[in-house]
Please model this.
Amino acid sequence: MSVILKTEKLRVEFTSREFRQTTKVALSSLDLEVSAGEIFGFLGPNGAGKTTTINVLLGFVTPKSGAAYLFGIDVRQPIARQRIGYLPEMTYYYKFLSAEELLRFYAKIFGLSRSETDKRIGKLLKLVELEHASKRQIKTYSKGMQQRIGLAQALINNPDLLILDEPTSGLDPVGRMKVREIIQRLKNEGKTVFFASHELGEVETICDRVAIIADGELKTIGRVSDIVAQHPNLEKAFLEITGYQLQPVA
Amino acid sequence: MRTVFALAGVVIKELYRRKDFYVLFILTIVICVIMAMVNIFNDNQIIRYIKELCLLLIWISSLVIAITTTARQIPAEREQRTLLPLLAKPLTRTQVIFGKFLGCWLACGLVLICFYAFFGVLAASREHTWPLLNYFQAAFLHWVMLGAVIALTLLGSLVFAAPSSNSTICFVIVVAILTIGRYLDAFALSLAEPLRSVFYAIYFAIPHLEWAFGMRNLIVHDWPLITWNFFCLDILYSLAYTAVFLVAACLVFRRKAVN
Model:
């Protein structure tokens, strides 16, 4: 299988703007490879560097050293983002637009033809179950609906790679289940999904492989079944790998 | 180019779905219509005062709309995190800047068409004349000048974090240029060195937007048209400043972290 997402010795540093400048290493020598058709879970505690890695992959942050490639193209080139879809964590879309207008806007950026746009919008609104609210302004949407329209915008260009940053965070169980079902459907369609998440149960259910990072360093990478085989479950594996010591409850 | 137009379309939609324009437009209409109905001292020339007042209100309204609309574009994208899915698409930051600029500029063009159409109706109801070319020259230079203001505000929105502080600073700069910009060289002459050089430098560096502001006289006092050569030169002058501010905005935005 071809590698469609790759990072090589990625190092990212953030320097504070205070008088006494301090430098924080957000990522240190990160090597990742994701193959086509995989559902890849990217795990780590808060502040581990998951979002920073995604930000580098999307060209939002320039690494101090190392390189990142999408489909073999350096991520600093906008064309590398032609075949990807991205759903950020907790995003509010243009609230004065309706779902249909929002999708049409993103379709225009990708240069889709009018007929293709109409077809994609119809299909996506059905997929995310927002057909009934397609003409309503986004400001009237619930959080779950906003997340689903976010997922629809990420899929407008029928991407080969989908990058999701905590797609189910803040959603109720029904909303979470709906998003999970959509990811499962995308997996069945042969899409590659790279997603950062804290929902370990969800990751265990749908991911083929996972990587766990902590303090900007890659701690482990491998098949979910291999990691779980050495531990009672993925949660225990995650806690042990990230160095968390379980305290006995008095 | 389609990306730039797509972004511009969203800005225009935002403007006509917000209340700012409608409030200012209705306020201008109400003030001018009331003024037009009042007969002060049986003065036959009162229409000139009404025209002057109406054009001043149009200028203030257009500046408020241009500056406030532009000032919130990039900060709102950052605050609501819509910038992330946008920049995750195959487009450059330069295209985002140009899209935002074009959207604000075209939106201001539509606003000006509404305002000047109302002004034309108001003036024609009293004078029964339609000096269309005068209106065209004044409105077009007004619009081109707004381009420079929009580009300046866009640059400011990347430098200052809060849209309110950016709006205030840009508004103060523009009003200062419109009111005292033309006197800076004379003022510099009255000063000793090195202040004289400083004020001269400021005089030659600032965009002299008051040239377009002075075009109101063309309509208020029925002055003859300016020559088309000067008209084109004035457009080029404003466009040059617009380009400078836009390039600066692109350079600042390119280095800006968006995470």
